[in-house]
Design brief:
- The structure holds two protein chains of two kinds.
- Helices cover about 20% and strands about 25% of the residues of chain A.
- Chain A is built from three helices and five strands; from the N terminus they run E-H-E-H-H-E-E-E.
- The termini of chain B are far apart.
- By secondary structure, chain B is α/β, with parallel strands linked by helices.
- Chain B has helices at about 55-70, 85-95, 110-120, 130-145, 160-175, 190-205, 220-225, 250-265, 270-285; strands at about 25-30, 40-45, 75-80, 100-105, 125, 150, 185, 210-215, 245-250, 290-295.
- Classes of the chains: A alpha+beta, B alpha/beta.
């Protein structure tokens, strides 16, 4: 937990997929603060409320069809929303999509 | 004339039929790719299957499973969504066995895939390329639901897909490395390769082996969904089996496909370049051990795209082409 006046969480860069850009004023990339993935995404949702119901499910966890990558790695196979975020880390939000060539 | 017995296990073998010859692919060490002396990187050359891709194993398993269960009737047409390789494998097998085949494929795959499918006698229905593989899946599901004359193996949800690897690819690799596997890296598409091999390795080797997925970073046209809820997770994927899941951009995939060719003489498809990149990243995090990655297909089907000959920034439609 962060104490008031203490050093803020890390500032991470978030890359916004085309499907969410209308909800963030057309931006491709935004910065948000937080010590873990959940905090960073919540900060994004607080600043741009229209993204909240796309990113989060009713239970407050990630929407089933949303993949969030921290420095190219899917946070779901790390610690999910609790995955720690460091200064200058990059987050990418993408829809879950299948390929087929390798199966 | 007496011939000495062959010592090399994946020697190809002798078969009465092309379909039987699927599998038993070579495992080859790529020494120049290794970032440190104690870490060895091995490529399982699934490109050496009869139609040139790992999907020969999957297509054979799904068709034989359907035959065993009596699911393919005489008046039926086999229908399958594919980004190419599964369709080509099914086409060869269906041609050998006398089944009709229709495939649903995005319209922005390389032209070689269309040519190969037609050569093997398959009928092609194109889905909108800007929807990627998901568009092909949705269209094929609609077609199958509307007409009982279609039998759809459906690689995304068919347990015969991972089973082909659980019973085939994985035991081969276990034998080839005497069970000394520390990391296994494969592409994430339907999930069959990762789930089948991953489950077998986990059962045989426990937690010592890391199961790592390389997945394509979707180009912007493919990301252009109406809502994130339009995403799709293939039913056979169980994320809890994965230790890592790392995406690779199309640009990096092409760069590493070229590295495989230039540094190791390995002529592979673009997804294999992406998988090699992740394999090297994982190898760089280890002090010693064996990293195995899958070479899904060879490069012939991508020649027209220029990925082997043009500077990467001059490859047309790099981000919008379905490479996987």
């Amino acid at each position: 937990m962060r104490l008031p006046g203490s050093l803020a969480g890390a500032m991470a860069t978030i890359r916004i997929p085309p499907v969410l850009r209308a909800s963030v004023g057309g931006e491709r990339e935004l910065n948000a603060e937080g010590s873990n993935v959940g905090e960073v995404l919540r900060a994004l949702a607080d600043a741009h409320p229209a993204t909240a119901q796309q990113i989060f499910g009713a239970d407050g966890d990630l929407n089933r069809y949303v993949n969030v990558y921290l420095n190219d790695e899917d946070v779901r196979v790390l610690d999910g929303l609790d995955t720690p975020v460091a200064e200058r880390d990059s987050l990418v939000i993408l829809p879950a999509m299948a390929g087929g060539a390798e199966g | 004339m007496s011939v000495p017995p062959l010592q090399n296990k994946p020697c190809g073998g002798r078969y009465g039929d092309l379909i039987q010859s699927i599998g038993n692919t070579p495992l080859v060490e790529l020494k120049r790719l290794s970032p440190k002396p104690g870490v060895r990187i091995w490529a399982k050359l699934e490109s050496r299957n009869p139609t040139g891709s790992v999907k020969d194993r999957v297509a054979r398993a799904m068709i034989e499973d359907a035959e065993d269960k009596g699911l393919i009737g005489p008046d039926q047409t086999i229908l399958e969504p594919t980004s190419g390789n599964t369709g080509i494998s099914l086409a060869m097998i269906c041609a050998r066995k006398g089944y009709r085949l229709k495939v649903v494929m995005p319209d922005n795959v390389t032209p070689e895939r269309t040519q190969l499918l037609k050569m093997y006698g398959a009928e092609i229905v194109y889905s909108p390329g800007d929807q990627g593989s998901n568009g092909a899946v949705a269209m094929a599901l609609d077609m199958a639901a509307a007409d009982a004359r279609y039998y759809m193996p459906y690689q995304y949800g068919n347990e015969a897909n991972p089973r082909a690897h659980y019973e085939g690819t994985a035991p081969e690799i276990l034998e080839e490395l005497d069970g000394n596997i520390d990391a296994f890296v494969a592409g994430l598409g339907t999930g069959g390769t990762l789930m089948g091999n991953g489950r077998r390795f986990r059962e045989e080797l426990g937690e010592r082996v890391k199961i790592v997925a390389a997945e394509p970073m979707q180009g912007e046209p493919v990301q252009g969904l109406r809502s994130l809820d339009d995403g799709f997770i293939p039913p056979i994927i169980d994320l809890s089996l994965l230790d890592r899941k790392i995406f690779v951009t199309n640009r990096d995939a092409v760069i590493w496909t070229r590295k495989l060719l230039d540094e190791e003489g390995l002529f592979a498809g673009v997804s294999s370049g992406a998988i090699a990149r992740v394999a090297v990243r994982i190898a760089g995090e280890m002090d010693e051990g064996n990293v195995v990655f899958i070479v899904c297909d060879d490069g012939w089907k991508y020649l027209s795209s220029g990925v082997y000959t043009l500077p990467v920034d001059e490859v047309e439609n790099l981000e919008s082409t379905v490479w996987w």
